[in-house]
Specification:
The protein is of the alpha/beta class. It has eleven helices and twelve strands.
Length: about 300
């Protein structure tokens, strides 16, 4: 295995096309194909499926590419440290539940360390996919919450995937509502206050278990429910339908606008929000810096 081979496979994965990757790398297509096949043979794995439709990364290929990107990141840092020049794109990926402070920290990292060339991924996604992304190294770090209801299932899933959980902060439950909603007129809300209004929550796909729900108290019955996939749609529905969602209460008005407010919810519960990392891999310098920024953002929120 060589760094050159690792660069080859990451370029093919990025383009999804052998010919385009070969053009970018300034090598002949047969040489690129042969080099990748040698790498696959060396480790006894299949990184890519090749078909008439093109190139697709296999599941074991996704895992291998995660390690390859880590190695290339470290090699680039060594080159930058001792040669004084950048050797390629900075790459970084986060998978998270839908938290504005995660995006705020991501933006801060990008401003400081993106450089002239970068490829940063911000994946707001389903809870199980966050765990899978970090386990398979598609993302360097994941952010999610646990509480007394889901912690047994979440912790077992993390152990099964060789991941660790580090707490950032513990929040009391709040309710996000539109600024002009009747619910916003109260300083504190009860579950009875919420009953007449639509409850909004994020879809969890094929792992739509209550234990993987992004919202606490998901087992409480609601007569009106709206399920969405992204934060912008949820916020629009909060405003347009006088809906609500139960959350941590941390919101960034600069990123999300002034139309949403948070109100405390009178329940005996909590959300312990933290980050997950692969147990056996030392975090990259960008990941460590992101954790530092994330921690500072949470303290000031």
């Amino acid at each position: 295995m060589t760094l050159k081979q690792l660069r080859y496979v990451t370029e093919v994965a990025e383009t999804g096309n052998i010919t385009e990757a070969a053009n970018r790398l300034y090598i002949a297509q047969p040489s690129l194909t042969a080099s990748i096949q040698e790498l696959e043979k060396e480790f006894g794995i299949t990184i890519f499926h090749r078909s008439r439709k093109g190139i697709e990364v296999t599941r074991e290929g996704e895992e291998f590419l995660g390690y390859a990107r880590q190695v290339l990141e470290q090699a680039n840092l060594i080159d930058e440290r001792y040669s004084g020049k950048s050797t390629g794109k900075h790459r970084f990926s986060v998978s998270s539940q839908h938290y504005s402070f995660v995006v705020e920290s991501f933006v801060e990292l990008l401003k400081k360390y993106g450089g002239d060339k970068y490829e940063f991924h911000m994946r707001e996604t389903e809870t199980y996919d966050i765990i899978r992304d970090v386990s398979e190294l598609r993302s360097e770090i994941g952010i999610l919450y646990k509480n007394v209801f889901n912690e047994t299932v979440i912790e077992k899933t993390l152990r099964d995937n060789d991941l660790t959980f580090t707490s950032l902060f513990t929040a009391k439950p709040h309710v996000f509502v539109g600024r002009n909603s009747p619910l916003s007129k109260k300083k504190k809300l009860t579950l009875d206050d919420l009953k007449p209004y639509p409850r909004l929550s994020y879809e969890q796909g094929s792992h739509n278990s209550f234990y993987f729900s992004e919202e606490i108290l998901s087992t409480v019955d609601a007569d009106k429910e709206i399920i969405v996939r992204d934060r912008a749609t949820l916020f629009n529905m909060l405003i347009g339908m006088d809906g609500y969602t139960i959350c941590s209460g941390v919101i960034n008005e600069e990123l999300n606008g002034p139309g949403i407010v948070a109100r405390p919810l009178k329940v005996d519960d909590y959300m312990e929000i933290g980050y997950i990392l692969p147990k056996a891999i030392t975090p990259s310098s960008l990941t460590q810096e992101y954790i530092r920024i994330l921690t500072e953002t949470c303290r000031s929120s």
